Target: Biotin synthase
Amino acid sequence: MTRHDWTKEEILAIYNKPLMSLLYEAATVHRQHHDPNKVQVSTLLSIKTGGCPEDCGYCPQAARYHTDIEGNDLMSVSQVKAQALRAKSSGSSRVCMGAAWRNVKDGEEFDNVLEMVRTINKLDMEVCCTLGMVTENQAKRLAEAGLYAYNHNLDSSEEYYKEVISTRGYEDRLETIDNVRKTNVTVCSGGIIGMGESIDDRAGMLVALATLNPQPESVPINALVPVEGTPLEEQQKVSIWEMIRMVATTRIVMPETQVRLSAGRTDMSKEGQAMCFFAGANSIFAGDKLLTTPNPDVNEDMELFKTLGLEPQKPFEKKSQPKTVEAEQSFYKPLGEKPKWSRPGHKIERNEEAKLKAKVAK
Ligand code: SF4
Model:
């Protein structure tokens, strides 16, 4: 039975178990709820890159920092379709489209994204979007277009979140997840380790996710990839042991969830990844880029799958395919809402420094 009343103390006790006991427990839970030889493969597509107004300290797409990523405007529907077909032919069951926006705004660009959702759903692939905060009506429009999942990460514990981001509040993250829950779109929400947070913060983030009812259907666990020019450029990379502990703990407290190995996989050995799969990870991002950070080559992934006897999960194995309603038949119309998402605006020293450095560099 899935529990929704996890406490931080309980989660810390799991995280800090002797590693072999932790692995054994996580692998047992994994086998009780999933086929341990199946891994869901997603392709992440950056449909609008860079120029983001937010100040997330880990992100090279924030306009205020000086990084060498190449920005691009919203891709066209035909470009997205071509990329989705490529992803499908290389074994992905899901396309996750990411746009560097603070929140979704009704209008032409969102209409285009809705058309992208319709197009990919018609290719019989799961479609996920990560577009920032959404209102209930916008979530319903995405659902109507055939969206399978919406990603909105909590990033860290509520306490540590304030040390990384000042332009939006944790409660808005939760409200967006809540808005998505008012539809039949599944929720994908996880976080990043290696941003300088404590183990307590990692447990705090897992409490926030595991006490959601229902729990998110997907939980991506990212290891920070420090990018030059961002406030977190000097963070030390996390060790594989921390990653394994985080994956195993996530698996135990969220038994039904698909736990996804996300950013940071290029720094992991094949043996390290295998241990993560054993500890309960059952989803990866494929493709040579994760929005803007590097990712292992698809062929390398498929070779690793072969070595480990893993098989890519077919689309809609966990939940049936949503129906697509065409734009003309749509029941939910744009409301032109202007929601007041919060902007706490507190000072984060290292974010300020990175912004100043960027100004000097420009
Ligand atoms: S993580 Fe998303 S919201 Fe934050 S700066 Fe990057 S693109 Fe913007």
Summary: The pocket of iron/sulfur cluster is lined by residues 52, 54, 56, 59, 61-62, 100, 132 (CB under 6 Å). DSSP finds twelve helices and twelve strands in the chain.
